[in-house]
Amino acid sequence: MIKIEKYIKEILIGEEALQNRVREIAKQIEIDYRDKDPVLIGILKGAVPFMADLLKNIHVPVRIDFMAVSSYGSSTESTGNVKILKDLDKPIRSQNVIIVEDIIDTGFTIDYLLKTLRVRKPKSIRVCTLLSKPERRIIEVPIDYKGFDIPNKFVIGYGLDYAEHYRNLPYIAVLKPEVYE
Ligand code: IMP
Ligand code: MG
Question: pLDDT confidence of 79, banded at 50, 70, 90?
């Protein structure tokens, strides 16, 4: 049996730190969206663990929906050519929307999502991301809720993948370089 921990170089954000921060963000959303019945839009697949933990810690009415997008390009670089793979189930017109993302890197994906969703006339729209790599930004995007700023390193775990693996790690980690080679 091969355990995936074998491929980890270092743990950047441990399980407890992640859970504590997610609870803080949930609390803030709870305060900001009391009586607003927001729709949390999870961006598949990376946002799944974050979205699940966030939801469990919000104790006011919320609804959820999901969207999947892809960006053409190599596996570790975004290109700005974003495409919808799965759209929302329901219209968001006049709704208070919160986009829930795993990571904002160049900013292309969230910029595309904001432009696409704003056309549908939501009442409000905010961005919630677990991670952000500010050094990598090409397009400036608004971030309303953010878990952690991280350095310019390719990270995996807690939803984030490399070639579709490692999403199941309960922490954020950096891969050993030999995995890429
Ligand atoms: P952006 O469009 O460049 O902001 O990239 C956003 C998307 O790229 C994220 O939703 C991730 O799917 C992916 N991504 C960016 N950086 C990383 C990383 O360090 N690890 C895993 N996926 C990443
Ligand atoms: Mg993603």
Answer: low
Residue 167 forms part of a structural domain: no
Q: Is residue 181 part of a domain?
A: no
What is the number of structural domains in the chain?
1
User: How far apart (Å, rounded) are the C-alpha atoms in residues 102 and 141?
Assistant: 15
Atom number of ligand 1 nearest to Cα 154: 19
* Boundaries of domain holding 58: 16-150
Ligand 2 center from residue 35 Cα (angstroms) = 29
Q: pTM here? A: 0.94
CATH of the domain at 49: 3.40.50.2020
* Tens-place pLDDT, residues 117-138: 999 999 999 999 999 999 999 9
Q: Where are the alpha helices (DSSP H) in the chain?
A: 15-32, 48-56, 108-118, 177-180
Residue of 53, 102, 105, 111 marked catalytic: 105
